[in-house]
Fold each of these.
Amino acid sequence: MLRMLSLGIVATTVITAAAAQTYQLTGPHWTREQREMLRSLSLASLGPVPADPSNRYADDTAAARLGQRLFFDTRFSGNGKVSCATCHDPNRDFQDGTPLAHGAGTTSRRTMAVAGTAYGPWLFWDGRADSQWAQALGPLESAVEHDGDRTQYAHIIAAHYRSDYEAVFGRLPKLEGLPEHAGPVADSTRAAAWRRISASGQDDITRVYANIGKAIAAYERGIGFTPSRFDRYVESELTGRTHTAADALSPDEEAGLRLFIGKANCSTCHNGPLFTDNHFHNTAVPASADVAGIDSGRAVGVRQAVTSEFNCTSRYSDAKPEDCDELRFAVTEGEELVRAYKTPSLRGVAERAPYMHAGQLATLTDVVAHYNRAPAAPFGHSELRPLKLSDAERRQIEAFLRTLSSPLVVPAGTTP
Amino acid sequence: MSAIRNLRNASSRTALPRAIAAAVVLSLLAGCMMFAKAPENLDYSRTRRSESGLYRGTILPQGDSISQGRLQRWTLHLETANGAPVDSATVWVDGGMPQHGHGLPTRPRVTRALGNGDHLVEGMKFNMGGWWVVKFRVNATPGSDSLVFNVKL
């Protein structure tokens, strides 16, 4: 009797294993439309990094090497302790893991990841910069981030980077007689010193400042993604290969993927190989208790982008006006912009808690619960509607999101 | 927006309650649209007659296919109901996703007339898959009318 039972167990095990093998061979039967969606989300669908006409040094390897050194140099700050890498930590996917960024002070926003940003037309949560180099210049002058200023930075370049800078950008302007600290910053002493500099002197210094941004952008441009388990799964599915441990998704992860592109509507905004539509949405994210004042998101950000001293149409841009169509045709007013924030990429999302533009949600579980609940927006109009997902479905989506993690690509020879 | 304008222009004691009622109705409609399904048998053809029949329009996306996530230029060919090319027209571009209740992610414009009824439309972009509507409001000698195109991505 006992022997028969054992044989039965063995037989059941063999049949179950065979069924699992068959399941692995055939996959979960994606429809043609779903397979196209999977293909569109796969990293294999990501083309080469698009040209940045506003930065003629974007693909200059010497500029990238210089940019890498600037990225990690804490001298580019008011207190000598803050570099880009302070918040964009390369050991943490170029972010800091805290709700609000901490530089010279505390900002009102979550540090954004760097990888893949060369593909996006708008930088920052509110898209107030329209290129990587314009983005890099914002924190350098912010009183709560680097808290430095333009003449200080030009002096640092002259003292420590002159030959590398001049090899890429040409001769530095004469800096003799310029104050150690001056710039159009919040600090009234440095701002007053800046106003005393002639217009042509300001222009010379600002060009050095813009070039610092362009070098940093050339470095950041090479920071990208490697294929995740999800990408390997899709490749295996689309080519009809048998899944191996390296490219299989568990039943829960597969179910989560199905929900992601189906019932849960995640791929409506998180679309394309970077899982972002590069646009701005009000998704009813609660206001942060740690941020004073009202944050209107894109409604303010787009005005800053349009009037930015460093936008695509500015004198410091290398682009022709016809290269600046994102800016030319940007939506600049309307209720849809109010409290709308950029759709972040979901690649590596499990490694980047906390979430949302001010780190309001601590975990992925909280994020999925938020989208399921679809609360009213603090102000403005939310695009969400309740998803009515079961507890199991929410866990499955979260399980799928964890398959999007992978190591980053960092330009060769430019690690810290 | 029209409800907001109505509120701003309300001058009599009865205008304000009417405007508020209009705003409530509009918001309810918007809410319904969020939940609406795409109508079946939508006409996705690239040549359409205008709503009042004054014009016939054809959209010609650059590269022929309509792509997702990238800025694109279109040519809008305009002719009268009798087939005469319309060159001197003022054209406004609008659109959005009726199911989602939002507009276009960009503000496209007709930037110049190319001759023979063709007009260059710049700044077209669709950031999501699904059903989109693109509307051209045309004002020329025959009168004002609207051309509405359905786009599926």
Amino acid sequence: MSDTDEQIGKLRLELRRGIVVLAVLSQMDTARYGYSLIQQLAAQGLDIEEGTLYPLLRRLEGQGLLESEWEVGETRPRKYYRISPFGRDVLVALRAEWLETVEVMRAILQGGDHG
Amino acid sequence: MADLIERYIYHVGRYLPKKDRADIEQELRSLIQDQLEDRFDSAPTQEQIASILVALGAPHHMAASYHHQQIFVGPDLYPQMMMALQHVWLIAPTVVLFLSIFGALISSAQGEPRPGASIVIETLAALWQTTISFSAVVVLIFAVMQRVGTAGGDKAAFDPLTLAEVDDPHTVDRFEARVGIVIAACVTLVLLIFLGEGGLTLHFNGSDPGGVIPVPTPWLMLLIGAVIAMLVLHLGVLRRNRWNAALWLTETCLEVFGMICLYFVVYEPLLARLLADIPGLANVPAIDSAPEIVVVIGALITLIGRGSRLVGLWRERGSPLDPVSLTQN
């Protein structure tokens, strides 16, 4: 891997870190277990490693943004996560913030292209 | 199939905080099986399972991603730093407590008895100060290791098929072994100073040994020999990365022998000094037998604690070496 690729890889990781939280929260109106969420996000074009997602779900739960429950009635026990009322409030604010950021960044980057 | 998954989960769990361990392990088990069902046939091969585990990363990497609040140390070294800190939090207060009692006895022997309240306050302050200081040193060492980039390892280097069996009695806990070597080296140095001074002292200064509680030299030399033998044994085990029945039995015998030596070198002389300074203690029931009781209880705990593993190693003695169990701690 060249230095450029390596640098881009690191920066991409930094960019994705916050995006992943927003993406996960946006999918949790329906109760989901980890692997179904990975597939759901992948189907929409966002690939997340398992080693990233599971700790993230626990962290969001620890922050009160998600709630969880073990479902034991299936072929194997699965832990389902769902957004909490507090998480929903945070998601509304984050979504607005994200959309505004996208607009600002678009203007900045397009300005950069012309400048 | 389950064996490899369980081995992986077991090794992840070793680095997880106890309160979250069971929940995370169960969730991880569920995740792996979901992936297997999704990607492979009903009976995936070991290689297919291994490919899933490689994608998850080495056990300590996986466990590290569950630790969120690293300040000085990144996720690769964080679990190991916490293990080191747990040792510090156990050993440092124990040593300080012992030295405080010992110091009180020495000062009494020198005709400078201190009030009890003063001893208690000084001991508490020393406990706090020592624990904080040593914790800071550990964090600093790991922070430096982080800076210079000793936190290595990438997913490509991880081979799940080499993971040690769950509860394999041959497995060497390399971290524990290293801690044992460092402690044995420190203890040897202190005992050599005692040997030079002819007894127990708190002044590690050849020109001014201060008050000395005499101890029988032959037993002190035997104790030094036992500690050095344990140090050498741990070095050998680290090198071969595998316990066997003979080595485990040897270490057990050395531990018990060390306790017997401690009886003559530490417990008996200290009790004799205590009784000489505080004659009223002689009225405490069974005080005369306290050293023997300490040794017998210690030896029993050692034998019971190590016995089951010895039995496991003994049963497997002579079995061909299994490369799968030569692993990665």
